[in-house]
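Title: Request for sanity check on Bifunctional 2-hydroxyhepta-2,4-diene-1,7-dioate isomerase / cyclase/dehydrase prediction

Description:
We are preparing a figure and want to confirm that the structure record we downloaded matches what your pipeline produces today. Could someone re-run it with the sequence below and paste the raw structure tokens into this thread? We only need the token string, no images.
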Amino acid sequence: MPYGSQGRLHRLTGPCSAWIADHAGWGYSNAGLIVGGSSSLLVDTLFDLRLTGAMLAAMAPAVRDGPLRTVVNTHANGDHYFGNQLVPDAEIIASGSAAAHMVQDDVESLRADLRAPGPHGDHLRHVFGGFDFDGITVTPPTRTFDGELTLDLGGVEVRCLTAGPAHTEGDVIVHVPAARTVYVGDLLFSGGTPVAWAGPLSGWIAACDRILALGADTVVPGHGPVTGPHALRETRAYLTLVEEAATAGFHAGRSQQETVAALRLGRFGAWSEPGRLVQNVAAVYRHLDPTLPHLPHAELMMRMGDYEAAFRPETHVPEGVPHRCAG
């Protein structure tokens, strides 16, 4: 992806806008802006300082009369919080579980992996070559919550709801009831395959149900274009398919690789990054047997890449597996 790739600010309903990345691949994430009568709220920052700075510059005219005083990080993947330091005067809010995973080691380990020799380093440089992680100082939340937190932006009500563990340990939903709009972070990859870094998938299915129960018409995903509740229903259907198939495979004594190979994605195979199935099956197996270790990153990368190469060899160019700081 060209280093110059950024995004655009899209006006939605009422006080809501969405920053949508020009590309929906690994690390290229979305964000949100809610402008109130007295202040504004930013949903997530981006993966590096250049991208976050460009986004904030584009938002500046919109927040002239309602300064940006609050940031809500939807979860602890770096592509949703590495830019926090560029809003130093804002209160930064996240779930308690997410805050516990926002550490400087995320940046340092990513830098080290990008310098690694061999196929693993080559892969990461291919995927993340468009980002600049120099100068990033992890800026953690100044306020945490669990359950529900209601904010008033000068007459605009914003509800923050915890919904994890699902994609990660501490996912958060940001709901603007009057605008019938919800920002869901990586609980939705619009047009892309979900990936459960934490799981269980049953928790993610429950999160989809909770979002759908809000009755929002507009759904802003963590990656991909703005959409509606139908996309959440499709994500729920995918997760249900994988959970049921992986559970059956586990109880039948099949290996994770055997279960992945046997699982037929049907219409979900048209989504980008189908190789995330490898991680999703692993999440189900670990939920059923917590003693199972996480796959080493290099092995996970290899399995995802192998799956994608075999899945659509004529049309799919595998981008492989990201560092767990992204996606």
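Thanks, this matches our download. Residues 229-251 form the longest helix (23 residues).
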